[in-house]
Amino acid sequence: QVQLQESGPGLVKPSQTLSLTCTVSGGSITTNYYYWSWIRQPPGKGLEWMGGISNTGTTYSSSSLKSRTSISRDTSRNHITLHVASVTPEDTAVYYCASTGPLGYFDSWGQGTQVTVSS
């Protein structure tokens, strides 16, 4: 089973771009039938799927966030990157990366990283 670790700044100012990295170990992000997602949970709210990237590099984004988010990967470093532009305090959340394997469910999660948007 793969292990995932999110990293990035804990505090971002409004209007800036948030950048997070998910480092994957114990497996390759190019493994067939694997998909890598970014999910967040704002305080007091449920989980929100933001988008993801397939093992072939195809990306998908939530329709509500598509205009502000981009997801990419670095196969040499085996990591996935999330960028969220023009952040507001409503982007304050715990951000997770998760893997989806051949069975089609989230089978591994990172521990999450808290991001606060505040001036």
Order of H and E elements: EEEEEEEEEEE
- Assembly type of the shown chains? single chain
Q: Pairing-aware structural class of the strands and helices? A: mainly beta
The largest sheet is: 7 strands, mixed
Share of helix among residues?
A: under 10%
Number of H/I helices: 0
- Poorly predicted spans: none
Average residue pLDDT? 96
Roughly how many Å apart are the termini?
39 Å
Rg from Cα? 13 Å
Proportion of beta-strand residues? over 45%
Large-scale geometry: globular
**Tally of extended strands?**
11
Describe this structure in words.
The protein is mainly β. The chain has no helices and eleven strands. The strands form two sheets. Strands 2, 4, 5, 6, 9, 10 and 11 form a seven-stranded mixed beta sheet that branches. A hairpin with a 4-residue loop joins strand 5 and strand 6.
Main attributes?
119 residues; mainly beta; seven-stranded mixed sheet; four-stranded antiparallel sheet; 0% helix; globular
